């Protein structure tokens, strides 16, 4: 009769719980255990009256901050409005009185012109040679004073005779034979020009050389 080998039986109790890895075990062991909140602190945290009081205090602080910010904004707005009005007033005054200094300087020129007219006789034919010379000298002095007033106020006179024609500063009214001047040079100035800074107030009225000599007229 053959013997049958029976499977060995494990008498140890079986554990149906899933196996836990070493990493999971270490993680569980590393997790800190939080202590429960003490009873007196838990009661204090849940005190509704204290929460309401703190909320009211914070609301009061925020309202005070808001009022301060609004007050500051109103002051800034008022200051900006005052600045705008002041700037408008200054612009208006500059437009009305901007030439006050220039006009004040011209008063002396006007006075000298009036004196020269008073000294001139009503009948020019009765004027002596000395009187005529005095009148002319007075007019020349008045012109020099006028030019000085212009220069003090930034106005420069342009008298470009002999200079190269510049269309930015000169206005040609005619072309004339060279007369010894190169082509496109100012032969004569009919009326001087004036500039203030880089701005042309009036271009100089000039005649421009053609560079060619005048042809002799046949008799």
TrEMBL record:
Coiled coil feature spans: 52-97
GO function terms (MF aspect): adenyl-nucleotide exchange factor activity; protein homodimerization activity; protein-folding chaperone binding; unfolded protein binding
Q: Which CDD domains match?
A: GrpE
The subcellular location is: Cytoplasm
Pfam families the record matches: GrpE
Identify one Gene Ontology CC term for this UniProt entry: cytoplasm
InterPro entries according to UniProt = GrpE, GrpE_CC, GrpE_head
Top-rank lineage group of the source organism: Bacteria
Give the keywords, sorted: Chaperone, Coiled coil, Cytoplasm, Stress response
Which parts of the sequence are annotated with region: Disordered?
1-48
**One GO biological process from the UniProt record?**
protein folding
Q: Which PROSITE patterns match?
A: GRPE
Task: Identify the main location.
Answer: cytoplasm
Q: What does this protein do?
A: Participates actively in the response to hyperosmotic and heat shock by preventing the aggregation of stress-denatured proteins, in association with DnaK and GrpE. It is the nucleotide exchange factor for DnaK and may function as a thermosensor. Unfolded proteins bind initially to DnaJ; upon interaction with the DnaJ-bound protein, DnaK hydrolyzes its bound ATP, resulting in the formation of a stable complex. GrpE releases ADP from DnaK; ATP binding to DnaK triggers the release of the substrate protein, thus completing the reaction cycle.
Name the protein family: Belongs to the GrpE family.
Q: Which HAMAP family match?
A: GrpE
List the protein's name: Protein GrpE
| Source organism | Parvularcula dongshanensis
């Amino acid at each position: 009769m053959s013997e049958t080998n029976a499977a060995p039986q494990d008498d140890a109790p079986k554990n149906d719980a899933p196996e836990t890895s070493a990493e999971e075990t270490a993680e569980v062991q590393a997790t800190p255990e939080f202590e429960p909140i003490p009873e007196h602190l838990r009661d204090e945290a849940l005190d509704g009256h204290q929460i309401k009081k703190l909320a009211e205090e914070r609301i009061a602080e925020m309202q005070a901050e808001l009022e301060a910010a609004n007050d500051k904004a109103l002051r800034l707005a008022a200051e900006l409005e005052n600045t705008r009005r002041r700037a408008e007033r200054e612009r208006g005054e500059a437009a009305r009185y901007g030439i006050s200094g220039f006009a004040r300087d011209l008063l002396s020129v006007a006075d000298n012109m009036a004196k020269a007219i008073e000294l001139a006789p009503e009948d020019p034919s009765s004027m002596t040679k000395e009187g005529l010379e005095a009148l002319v000298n007075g007019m020349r002095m008045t012109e020099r004073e006028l030019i000085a007033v212009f220069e003090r106020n930034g106005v420069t006179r342009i008298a470009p005779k002999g200079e190269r024609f510049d269309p930015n500063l000169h206005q040609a009214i005619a072309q004339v034979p060279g007369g010894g001047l190169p082509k496109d040079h100012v032969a004569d100035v009919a009326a001087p020009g004036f500039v203030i800074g880089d701005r042309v107030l009036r271009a100089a009225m000039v005649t421009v050389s053609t560079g060619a000599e005048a042809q002799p007229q046949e008799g």
